[in-house]
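Late entry, evening session. Most of the bench is empty. Finally got around to the prediction I had been postponing all week. Sequence below, unchanged from the version circulated by S.P.
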Amino acid sequence: MKLAFSTLGLPGLPLTDVLPLATAHGYHGVELRAHPEEPVHPGLTPGERAGVVAAFRAAGLEVLGLTGGARVAAPGDDGAVIDEVRALVDLAHDLGAPYVRVLPGGAGPSPGEADATAARRLGTAAEHATDAGVRILLETHDSHPTGADAMRVLGLVGHRQVGALWDVMHTWLGGEQPVESFAALSPYLGYVRVKDIASAEDTAPLPLGAGVLPLAECVEVLSRQEWDGWLCWEYEKRWYGSAAPLSGLLDGGRRHLARLLTESA
């Protein structure tokens, strides 16, 4: 499996500083938070996009994917959500990134209505993603925290360019065991997002291995099934300003994941 980390853990840091951290600590790629407050976002010019590609190529790293804030199950107008997803897909295409992450964000008393809304929007955006050669991944998150929840939507979409991003924290918070999450998500799985926290009540980010999340079990399930995709560390420094800087934790995080992979083999 390849290892990456998200720039959510390095808020606002220029790529000229992010990429050397990745290479110095043995990561294979970087997941980019695509937001206007970050160096990479859909408002970049063609020349700026080319500069991002050149920087990754020079560093010998891959752009794993882009994460935006589109909420595909949220109430409201379809058009604005679909446009937001398409803009992310276009940026991913220009950067050579294979994946775009979207959130469910459903609200209201009817899960079935949220499922249908998400499926309709994802199905529409999928045609654009097909042309761009990019895969849209629905993250296990908020209104759809488990693999079973995400599968309800993805089964309705039924399109190869729409898949799943397994966030191990949210499936755990949803009461799902790793083997259950993988069984639900495996037909759709793009990549896996790892992290660690102190408890269900305290979700501030911790170094990998310092918390309660079943990372060893998740890696064991993936290895047993001979899954060979990406593990991406999402350290939510952007939302928890008092958390320790990610830069000082990257080497330990890579070593912890490497140890889990060795043990699972």
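Two things to note before I forget:
The chain has a mean pLDDT of 97.
The chain is about 45% helix and 15% strand.
Will write this up properly tomorrow.
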